[in-house]
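Predict structure. Input: Core histone H2A/H2B/H3/H4, 156 residues.
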Amino acid sequence: MVRTKQIAPTSKRPPTAIKRQIIPLSRRLETKRKLHSGEKAKEKSGTIAVKKRAKPGVKALRDIRHLQRTTELLIPRLSFQRVVRDITNKICAKRVIDDLRWQSNALLALQEAAEVYLTCMFEDSNLAAIHARRVTIMPKDMHLVRRLRGEHITMK
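Output follows.
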């Protein structure tokens, strides 16, 4: 007998059709399930469409995957520019220089470096939290990471 490769049967409906579940109104009234605050129901010819609730953490994982794929900056440019100008004005207030000017490329390079530093800091802090058998990053994780890196920045 000849051996043939078996192919798994595909489902008839696409996976997007599973998102909503249509419940007849009579069965809906029997169960007397109350709608939650965020849930909305639409009545159409005796049926109510109830949107299924996603599991916790699914949206967070989707956002993480999206942000890992993109190359755009995460901090808005104008707010970062305001912070940089504010800090430089405070530092230069002690000196004679009135107002420093910044080239747009210099601000962009500074923002890129700051975001890379923060991303690496959060990655290492996450590893420290996982090592401590936790999921949540705490300030003590960041202190540990900075201490291991040899960073001791004092703000005066």
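DSSP finds five helices and three strands in the chain.
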